[in-house]
Each structure stands twice: as structure tokens, then as C-alpha cells.
Write the C-alpha cells for this entry.
Amino acid sequence: MIAEFGLAALWLAAALAGLQLLAGSLALTSRGEQMGGIVRPVAIVQGLLALTAFASLIALFCRTDLSVRLVALNSHSLKPFIYKLAGTWGNHEGSMLLWVTVMGLAGGVVALVERRLPERTMLATLAGQAFVSLGFYAFLLFSSNPFERLNPAPPEGQGLNPLLQDMGLAFHPPTLYLGYVGLSVAFSFAIGALITREVGPAFARAMRPWVLGAWIFLTLGIAAGSYWAYYELGWGGWWFWDPVENASLMPWLAATALLHSASVLAARNALRAWTVMLGVVAFSMSMVGTFLVRSGILTSVHAFAVDPERGTFILALLAINIGGALALFGLRAASVTEGARFALVSREGALVFNNVMLSATLGIVLFGTLYPLMAEALGAKVSVGPPYFNPMTALFVVPMLLVMAVGPLLRWRRDAFARVRSALLVPAGLTLGVGIAVAVSAPIGVLPLLGLALAVGLAVASLLPLRGRSLRRTPLSTWGMVVAHLGVAVALFGMASESAFSIEKLVAARVGETTRVGSWEVTLAGVHPVAGPNWTALEADMRASYAGGAPASIHPQARSFWAPPQQTSESALLTRWNGQLYAVLGEAAEDGRWQLRLWWKPFVTLIWLGGLMVALGGLLALVGHVASDLRRHVARAKIAYRRQRQGR
Amino acid sequence: MRSPDAPPERPAPRRWAIWLPLGLFVGFVLLVLIGLLRPADREVASAMIGKPLPAFDLPPAIPDRPGLARSDFAGGKPRLLNVFASWCIPCAVEAPQLDALAKEGVEIDGIAIRDRQEDIAAFLARNGNPFTRIGADDVSAVQLAIGSSGVPETFVIDAGGVIRYQHIGEIRADQLPLIRAKLKEAEQ
């Protein structure tokens, strides 16, 4: 019954999305204006119905209802409860349902609270949101029905990919989805503003919280995904330029650019067409990313739902949505003037530079991701990896980081570099000093060296906007910027340190043997079998001591799952303030020795700490903006109330 | 640079630039359409097929077999060049097939990748030694030069020293006829 109930809710939600689109579009014409009244309520109910459908699917997974095809294929009665729950969205159909649910709810919230924009723009925005949703509803209902029954019901489910049976991964995709879908709201706002030609500061302010929210989730999602790949795949790396990683990085780059250009538009009424363009591009990148992952067009370790038919469907959606939006942009952009002008050396100038660099980086990543596909179309086979991505992205990221140190110190409209020169002496000196000191003392590559030096200078420079200010009266959004920029510096330091100073040891050790990795001494005390709820494993008992200190125990495992049968290696990590020891248990050799892979990675944890700081900065800015919007709203209401009373 | 008091010029409206994103996007859609419609092909084909072996000269990997040089591949019959390693498990799996080919009179030369003399000797003692010559390639230099990206791989080299076929992965028992056919082809 639950499955049929959920399916009915899904159909109703789709029907309401159709109504929302129809009413919203009609209301824009001169004859259908009275239709406008129902758009907001319809949007809210549509979101609630989608939520009902998703809740039904969760219920089916929690009860392991094997008469539902999706549950039978992706769950198992023996699976731990939390993974049954996560199994709801750990597959293609469920994740698409989550997508439309979040999208519907976001549309509902916009309909409920957003009152700053002209009503016509709001109607166009909500119609746009409904249009995008409708495509995904069609996708779900016609090609990926999550509620399809299986008759007869199998006695047992087919499990979940054990590689995906992991807490980090259970919550990683929904985090990214919240980000993607948040960008869909920005996309709809951009469409609405283009249709009614109302691109201005109010549009930027209405869009900004959604972009910020999406950006926070994307940041968290990317950081979590990178940490997952780091400890779960057992390869010791934290970023592989895998197509799926790129698929999450590209919307993040676009959203970062959008965030900054929306600030310019909100504060200075400049960069109008550019901001609208980025609003379209950011969500387009989310869809392109989803398409690349889901269609299996690029082979990747992440491709868990590879199906060319679905790929074609998503491609059609993509072509309609993005192609339509870009065509609309082409038709309307000429009538959207660029707005207020500014000098090259100014806050706007720095932000424009940052935008261009971010967009260029985005282009580099997109090109590198698609290049194998282009080559294949011409009959050649290539794969593109770090030797392309690292230097090419650095080419644009390094200048961006330099400008990022300066930009926040500049005034809006027009400034002179001479005014901020003295303030920048300290970070510039530090960058140079660290660069020279490291270059002299350790033979490391150019990029890591540059990274270390820049990170130190940038960390100091990112604090400079607080200089001479009362810390208590500094607006929350300024704090957000400072924390986020500092987070970038921290993460950069971690990346550079990891790639410059990591030590790797691959040994075949007997029980009792000790291996040195950097300052660590690791002793293999024994290897014994252990059993978990749905796996068995060989677990190594290792004692690791740092610089002769007290030994700590670590237990890397080589796991075997039986549903479906699969081998994974569970790495063991030992975290110290200055880095991580990373241990992987390999295969047994015939003579009783064990293959061990050990790494000492100095300051590697800063990568994710920095990522968290970036997200925290976003959160502070979001809270700051929402709070000041609320204050403005309350103040305006008070004035209106006073005027009303005086009028009497 | 313009002098600062020159009147600000409005850049001429570049209408084509407005349509550029759409153009790029259409290109993207066409590209992935080609990718989607093309049948999936997971084989990695060698770029070296039809080309002569590059010059190399490897020292012997074990004392009782000579090393391997480019000059050994001149004249005579087509032969096999097997890239292997003692630490590679599929290499042990294909050993019986190589032995069978060697017993049929096929000359097989080996290149041992990143290996130790005593390990190779132990491996051959365990799995049999079908090789006429074995070169030691300690840094994978020759392996890469001949277009091999893993172990085991087997190349069919014709009498002129030209690579005629590359077999990626172990030779399974049911693939023996394929190898024999490729050897026959290489005779022409």
C-alpha cells in the first residue's frame, strides 16, 4: 500500500508542477493575470506532495519491503538500519526522487517567503522552477519509477555495494544534491529575471541566500567526498580528478563565481548580465555533472547507475533546460545593460578578476573532463589526469589567490593600490620568506612550494579586513568572508604539504617486524580474522609510535563482503596535530609475510579542516545576510505602521 | 594605455558573444550524443601495432638465459614477446598456455618487469620456463616503449621485427587458437 500511496503522491506532485507552470506562464500574459494568485499555494503543496512520496520510499526501505523492485535490488534484510535508510537515496531512482523532493520543497519555501521581487518576476521564477521539476517528474514516472512492484517478491534483497556501505557516503550524495538543487533556485530566479527584464540588486539579494546555501552544501559535499575517497579507496590520495569529482567541482566553481558577482550586483548594481549568465551556468554545471555521472558516458569508479537509456533522457532534459535558458539569455542579454561602471583597481575590479579566473578554471576542468570524449569521437583513446589538471588549474588559481589577498582591502568603485600597499607588506614578505626558506631546505616541486608560500601569505592577508575594526561590530557577512578566505589558505597549506612531504612505504613485513615511516615506527603485532554484520575481514594489529612516544594501536582490514561478494580494504588512520599516519593491509605472501602500505602525511587534515572553514564562512555570511534582510523587513514594516497611524 | 581624462568608451556591443554560450552548449550536446550512440568499447588498442620494435638492449634477468635486445628479432619465424613479472598472479595463470605454445615450437622471449633475479628463478621453477631469452626491465622503460601498460601482455612479432598483435591480460586456455592464428597471420 505504501508504494501505491507514494506513487500517487508523486503523480499528484507532477500534476501540480504542470499547473504551476501553466498558471505562472498565463499570469504573465495580459489576459491571464488572475491566474497568478494560485501559483504560490500550488508550489507549496507540490513540495509537500513530493516530500510525501519520498517519505513513502524511506518507509519502504526501512521495512525492507522486498515486493518493491528498487528495495529488492538495493537492500538486504541483514543490512544495518542506518544503511537501509541511506539505501533510499543510494541508487538512481531514489536519488532522483530526493532531487525532485528537495527541488519541490525549495520552490515551496521561495513561494512562501520571498516578497521582495516584483510579483511578475516571482511568477516567472516559480513557473521556471516548475518547468525544470516537470522534466524530472517525467523522468521518474516514465523511466525510473522507484515504486515499481516485483511479483513474486524475492526472499532476499541484493544488498548494497559494500564500497558504498559507509557513513560518509550515506550522507555525501544528499549533501551534494542540496547544493545542486539550491542552484536550481538560482537558475529559476535568473530565468524569472530574464523573462521580466528585472535584473537588479533586488534580484541579487533574493538569489543570494540560495546560492550561499547551495554553495555551503557543495563545499561540504566536496570535502566529505574527498575524505571518503581518501580513506575508503585505500590509495592514499585525496583528489583524483575523476570525472565524478570534477562533476561536483564544476558547479562549485560556478557557484563561487556567482556568489561573488551577486555581491557586486547587490551592492553596486553592476555585472548584471554576467550574474544572470552565471546563475544559468551554475545549475547547468550541476545538470551536466549529473548527466556525466549517470549516463556512464565517462567510465569512472563512481558510476553506480550506468544506463545509456537514462543517459539519453537526462540529455534531453539538459538540452531543453540549458539550451532554452541560454537561448533566452541570448535574446534578452542585449537589453540587460551592464549597470554601474567602476575602475579597474576597485573592489568590483578584483571581484571581476576572481570571476574570470574561476570561470577559466571551470573551463579547464570541463575541457579536461570532456576531452576523452572528444578524442573518442575522433577515434582516439586518451585519459586525462593530474599532469594536465594540476598545472593548468594552477595557472588560473594562483593569480586568483593573489588577487584574493588584495581584493577585500579595496574600496568599491575606485581605489588606488598605493593605499593598501603598506598593509600588504607583511603577507607579501611572509610569502617570499617562506618560499625561500622552504626552497633552500627541502627539494620539493614548484607547485607545492608555491602552494606553501602562498598559503602562509594568504592566511595573514585574509585577516587584514578585520584590521582597525571593532571586532564586535564587524558585520557577520564580513566575518564570513574572512573565515572562508582563511579556510582557503588552510586547505591550500594542507594540499601543498601533503604533496610535498608525504612519505610512502610499501613493505612485506613478518609479524613482529618494525617499519620506519618518517618519524613513526610501526610494528606488525599480528593478523587475525574478525567478523562484522555482513562481512568478514583479516585485521592487522599494528602498534605505531611517533618519535619514540607511547605506541597506539591501529587496525587496518582487508574486508570481504558476501552480498554482493566483494573485497575492500579498510585503511586505518592515526591522526596527530601535524598529520596522519595511513595504513593499509594488503595480501599475504606465501612465506608468511604481509604486504603493508604505510604513509605519513604531514598536515593532510588541514585540507578538510580548511574546507569546513570555507563552509562555515559561507554559513556566517548566510546568517548575516538573512538577519540583515529580516531587520530591513521589520524596519520597513514599522515605518509603514507608523505612517498608517499618523495618517489616521 | 589611454590617458585617464579621455572620455570613457562604451565597448561596441558584441552580439555574437551573447550567443557563444549557447553555441558551446550545442557543441557539448552533439559531442555526448555521439558518445552515447557509439557502442561501448572497452578494449585498449595499441598504437604500436604495425610498427617495428624500438631499439633496446636488456641484460639477462636470470643467469641461465641470455638477455634480450632488438637485434634478436631479425629473421626466422614470427615469435612471441611476453611481458611478465614474478609478482604478477595472472602471469602464473597463463604459464601453462605459454608452455604449451613453447612445446609446439613457438619461440617465446620474455621481459621481466621490475623484478629480482631470485624471485624470477623461483617463479620459473614453479610455473615452468617457456622462454628462450629473458631481459630484465627494471624501470619499465622497454615495456612503455613497446606500448604495454601492464603485466602480463603478449606481443606477436613477425620476422621483420614488426609488432603484429598485442594481447592484453593473461592468455587463457580458450584463447590459444587466437594466438596461433595471429602467429600464422604474422608469417605473411
